[in-house]
Fold these 3 entries.
Entry 1:
Amino acid sequence: MIRLGLLIPSSNTTMEPEFYRMLPKEFTVHAARLKLKSVTVKGLAEMERKIEEEASKLADTDVSVIGYGCTSGSLFKGLGHDLEIEQRIEKVSGKPAVAAAGAVIKALKSLKIKKIAVATPYIDEINRLERQFLALNGFEIIDFKGLGLSSNLQIGRVNRKTLLKLVLNLNYKEADGIFISCTNLPTIDVIEELEAKTKKPVISSNTATLWAMLKKIGVSIRIRGYGTLLRRM
């Protein structure tokens, strides 16, 4: 049995169920929660204050790795924010850590994606910071569209039709791949369909974070049904 740990926003309703669906039965997922209702800079900054406290509790379950399951929350302070969060978690927990934003960077690079089209559920305040973070990490952004949502519960309720429309309306023709941001945005039911329609690799925050967590602990399994990234583990 391999235990994976997640530090997620208190209002996240998507990441745990998606991880369980993607993982084989020999894995279990254990989550601690950080208070967050609105995905704003203020809300993310307040949430981050409790990282050490909750990571320390999560380590008591003897998980093999801890994922910081918030994309915007691990990039809003700019370049290197993801690494800082990983170091904070590792210091207090004694466990290897992966921050969602850093996982996305590694996943895109592993697929040799340099030009990206990005879809998010976020408001403009967060979109600006995410665009900047991706650019500073060396990516050329071909297009970037958001849904304008700040309520994390609303983000978790975005339906399949809305997500498909958002992604397919991106100008993705010149992109090497497509990134769908946010660990609370339900994505895994549409990734294969989007890859078939766009002829591009599509990664989400959750597929990237899972991929990076397994890589971090040296677990190599191919997971089918959720996009190119996980099939190529």
Note: DSSP finds eleven helices and eight strands in the chain.
Entry 2:
Amino acid sequence: AMLLCNEILGASPISKLFMKIREAMSLCYECSSVYNSARGAIIVTTGIDSDDFELCKDAISEQVGAMQRGDISDSEFIAAKKSVINVYSALKDSPSAIEKFYLGRVIHNVDSELANFIDKFNSLTKEDVVRCAKSLSLHTVYFLRGDGSVEEECDDE
């Protein structure tokens, strides 16, 4: 369910972060999230103008809050589900992807059959996603700020 939660939040170009913060608000040139299942964390990354830091941080929090309140449209839910299922269905076309999938399942001690994973994923509901979203909280913010200066290197020879 957290994988689907992440997909809706920011893992694709149809996600809340991409559509609202990048496209509708034009706050950043990149805005996405990744789910780290080993740490149980969703990590959001953005590329922004440093003047927009607070506005972007607030906008990200608003999108997480929207998910926690159950503000997930049918089209967002269906598209995200199809996206993840397509990715996992395509694993069988890549030996290294199959190996990575099964290794991860063994490490986490969960059912290791790809077909079972897809079946379980297909049965997820919006309520499952909202439950996962409600478990999200801000942990750490890293902000790398450039000072706008340019350092040039030249060879005088």
Note: The chain has a mean pLDDT of 91.
Entry 3:
Amino acid sequence: MELNNQLKLLLKKIARQGKENIAAAFLLMLLLGIGFFAVLWRLQSYSVDFCLRTLKEETQEAQEEIYLQISFAQTQLEMLVGIIEGEDEITSERVAEILQSDKDMGLVSRLGIVLPNDQILGQDGNVHESVNGITFEALAEKGSFITNVEQDNLEEDRSVLFINIPVKMGSRTEGILFGVIDPQEMYDYFEVR
């Protein structure tokens, strides 16, 4: 009977140690799972932070590059206005030749002059009607400025940016030289990694 009691004690001891081993194994698995998910969450958080920081840096670089390119285009147009202001008449053949000679202006895809009668002298030398309803008076009041994206003045289904610069002959504003920037074509000029 003593052997039987010892055997029962041994089985109880084994059962108790087995339960302790199972509890320890479960606790270890739980800690490993928590650790795994904590590391996964930290890696994901780090990756998101890294990507957002990189995106912010690239956006700032692109913004600075766009600003420099538009400033350069505006300076070119201001120099062109200086040449046009030396002419006798804003609709002269010489002015049309000046507009035609500057077809490759980088970011600026097209030039024109808004005349006091709200018509547009195009690079082709022809006078066109504006389709976006902009008036010479409204542009002249604003002076030199760059617009937000708005409807093109010759193609109503196209949205563009305008660089507008008044052309003064004597003391009067005789026209508004504008350069058109197509936002769809800007990606050709800027490399974003």
Note: The first strand starts at residue 108 and ends at 114.
